[in-house]
Structure prediction request, 144 residues.
Amino acid sequence: MSKRIELGSDEYLASFKENLNTDEDYAKLASSVVDSYTLVLQAEPDKGVEDTLVVGFEIKEGRMTDIWLGEKETSFILSAPYRVWVDILIGNIGANRAFITRKLRIKGNMPRLLKTAKATDRLVEILREMPTRFHGEYDRHSFG
Prediction:
């Protein structure tokens, strides 16, 4: 078993960027993407997730050019309770399905985002390959 990396840590973000930028499939699927994203993983204090986690990143033509913790203005904001993000990462629901069922709220240009659905699916697959440790009660779902 690999060492699990805490979701949202500096090490996790660096690994995410490296894995995404070395994935040829993602590069092809996102070759026309020039956008930035904010992911808001909302706190669930009753589940041991005390703080909201905010992660942002920028994609330019299939490569992640920047990743950060905290808020910045971005093309899209995707927000959901922490448990929804866990469900996406462990494969209980796809990111696009979470959006359609309104479990994942999105602000931004919907048609533009939907055009990149296959790239989004690949991005999630890359995250699923990373050994991940979740916070609070969700630690039991950690993997890798």
Notes: The helical segments are 10-21, 24-29, 82-90, 95-100, 110-114, 117-128. Residues 10-21 form the longest helix (12 residues). Residues 127 and 135 are 16 Å apart (CA to CA). The domain at 5-129 is CATH 3.30.1050.10 (Nonspecific Lipid-transfer Protein; Chain A).
